[in-house]
């Protein structure tokens, strides 16, 4: 890409001996740092960027906004939530960036963060039971625990269009979008991809660009966000219950949300009652529609019924028949919500406008890229000044391909995962002692609200470290058997879901050449937490010494 990476620079190298190194200063890294400080550990975060916030530091593409509703997309730390006023129900990237600046002010995360420090290699030293870590800037760290909080979207995916490098306009991957923005006013903009990112970029740039071209391979089943302001008085009233909601309530639903899980299946209701339930979910917005009924993602007939409701709504919002058939076809092209739906505000109205062109790349694929635009198979040149690449990530495992991690007997993580991902509890890996990670493969990562997963995972990590310290132990390793059983559990839980039958990043198949495998734990947050917590008393599934 010729779009520059948000140039965050490199820090001067240091040499440190720590109890633990956390990698990444997003929600997980910050929460873990806070908790481990409280427990008296000597700890630092290595962060490639210049500020905390993780994806909310990096992702400043137009329209970037979170799809979890106030107040759950937040840290449960009282010093933070008592002193912060949210503005929007679904905050945008700027508001989230300000939130993290506030978090940094309150917790002084920066004091223990090595900014501009990208971890490259980590080697487990079997003679000392410590990790030796080396960073791109020359920083070297020795520590007992290596705690990866790199998130699931640390490796970008680019399309392999012929001639992409010859494009002379401005081109940028969504997650590299410059913090200062790119002026799209009056420009011919194009967006490739219709995932959560592509939808947000398209919806936003359509309002300013002279022309917008969206390359659509798979239509997104977008749900209304139903954005609103957070009333400051309401937030003050919410303070009475917020702690309970952030530390208890949000772990009671499958997706880590505050609204209850559905109790009924689609056909338990009469057509009238079903209509009323779906209308209510639509009116309230957010992801409610995805779980308005228990079997939306397990029964084909139930799924088709929800699609019928969705498609009627969407078709009514568009006047252009060709666009309507592409974005909301009568016949579903895949199970509704089998891929991650986007929350939208006026996406369909924007896409319906005459200055927006939708290219169906399934029937008319990209042929090649020229200096001034993209040529499709039908010979059309789509002229472009600014090209936004929203083709996603080598999600979950991709971030670990950047890192050279060597565990016991010289085995690397790349080799360990070559024929499929194996983990235990979605936080540890056999042969890689004292390595724990959050928000990665084999936990409810993609299927739940982020902070609702990473905080309890961080608590589990803290409990492991505390128990190891109390018992005077120095090495904890998942067993190969525990790992095999966990993979089988992941497979079993996922096989009941229609998501299992869809290609995309949930199954790793968005990247050509990747092994198809379920990457997420599909049992929901409550069962996941019960399972991981049950291992703590006796360190079930681990070898400890
Ligand atoms: O990435 P994606 P994303 N030619 O992989 C298309 C989180 N997130 O960055 O579906 C043409 O979902 C691909 O098409 P197809 C969220 O969890 C959250 O959008 O494979 N098209 C797809 O449409 C999300 O799920 C928020 O047929 C190509 C798109 O590119 C995750 O991050 C906001 C192509 C990629 O979609 C990832 O989202 C943003 C090609 N060669 C992201 N290759 C919020 O909370 C790929 N595509 C709001």
TrEMBL record:
Keywords associated with the record: FAD, Flavoprotein, Monooxygenase, NADP, Oxidoreductase
* Molecular function terms, GO-annotated: monooxygenase activity
Q: InterPro entries in the record, alphabetically?
A: FAD-binding_Monooxygenases, FAD/NAD-bd_sf, FAD/NAD-binding_dom
One Pfam family, short name please? Pyr_redox_2
Where does the FAD/NAD(P)-binding domain lie?
19-222
| Record's keyword annotation contains Iron | no
The cofactors required by this protein are:
FAD
The UniProt family comment states:
Belongs to the FAD-binding monooxygenase family.
Q: Which PANTHER family match?
A: L-ORNITHINE N(5)-MONOOXYGENASE-RELATED
| Identification of the protein by name | FAD/NAD(P)-binding domain-containing protein
Which lineage ranks, top first, belong to the organism behind this chain? Eukaryota, Fungi, Dikarya, Ascomycota, Pezizomycotina
């Amino acid at each position: 890409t010729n779009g520059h990476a948000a140039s965050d620079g490199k820090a001067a190298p240091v040499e440190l001996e720590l109890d633990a190194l956390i990698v990444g200063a997003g929600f997980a890294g910050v929460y873990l740092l806070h908790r481990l400080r409280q427990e008296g550990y000597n700890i630092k975060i290595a962060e490639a960027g210049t500020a905390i916030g993780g994806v909310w530091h990096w992702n400043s593409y137009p329209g970037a906004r979170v799809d979890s509703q106030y107040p759950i997309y937040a840290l449960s730390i009282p010093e933070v939530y008592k002193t912060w006023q949210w503005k929007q129900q679904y905050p945008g990237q700027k508001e989230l960036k300000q939130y993290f600046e506030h978090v940094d002010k309150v917790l002084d995360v920066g004091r223990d963060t090595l900014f501009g420090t990208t971890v490259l290699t980590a080697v487990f030293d079997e003679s000392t039971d410590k990790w030796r870590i080396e960073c791109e800037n020359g920083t070297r760290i020795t520590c007992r625990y290596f705690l990866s909080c790199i998130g699931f979207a640390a490796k970008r995916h680019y399309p392999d269009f012929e001639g992409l490098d010859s494009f002379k306009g401005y081109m940028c991957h969504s997650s590299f979008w410059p913090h200062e923005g790119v002026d799209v006013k009056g420009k011919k903009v194009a967006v490739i991809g219709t995932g959560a990112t592509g939808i947000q970029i398209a919806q936003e740039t359509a309002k300013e660009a002279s022309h917008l071209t969206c390359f659509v391979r798979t239509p997104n089943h977008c749900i209304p966000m139903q954005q609103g302001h957070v009333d400051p008085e309401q937030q003050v009233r919410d303070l009475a219950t917020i702690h309970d909601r952030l530390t208890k309530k949000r772990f009671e639903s499958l997706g880590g949300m505050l609204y209850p899980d559905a109790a009924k299946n689609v056909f338990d209701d009469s057509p009238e009652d079903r209509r009323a339930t779906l209308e209510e979910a639509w009116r309230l917005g957010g992801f409610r529609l995805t779980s308005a009924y228990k079997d939306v993602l397990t029964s084909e007939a139930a799924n088709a019924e929800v699609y019928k409701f969705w498609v009627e709504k969407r078709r009514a919002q568009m006047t252009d028949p060709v666009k309507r058939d592409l974005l909301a076809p009568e016949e579903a092209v895949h199970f509704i919500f089998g891929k991650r739906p986007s929350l939208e505000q006026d996406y369909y109205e924007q896409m319906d406008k005459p200055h927006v062109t939708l290219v169906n790349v399934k029937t008319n694929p990209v042929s090649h890229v020229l200096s001034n635009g993209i040529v499709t198979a039908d010979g059309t040149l789509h002229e472009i000044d600014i090209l936004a690449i929203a083709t996603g990530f080598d999600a979950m495992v991709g971030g670990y391909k950047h890192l050279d991690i060597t565990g016991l007997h010289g085995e690397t993580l790349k080799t360990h995962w070559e024929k499929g991902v194996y983990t235990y509890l979605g936080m540890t890996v056999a042969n890689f002692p004292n390595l724990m990670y959050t928000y990665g493969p084999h936990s409810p990562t993609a299927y739940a609200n982020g902070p609702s997963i990473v905080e309890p995972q961080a608590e589990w990590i803290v409990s492991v470290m505390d128990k190891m310290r109390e018992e005077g132990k120095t090495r904890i390793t998942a067993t190969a058997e525990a790992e095999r059983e966990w993979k089988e559990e992941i497979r079993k839980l996922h096989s009941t879901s229609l998501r299992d039958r869809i290609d995309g990043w949930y199954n790793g198949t968005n990247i050509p050449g990747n092994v198809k495998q379920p990457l997420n734990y599909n049992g929901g947050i409550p069962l996941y937490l019960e399972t991981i917590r049950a291992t703590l008393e006796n360190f079930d599934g681990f070898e400890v010494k």
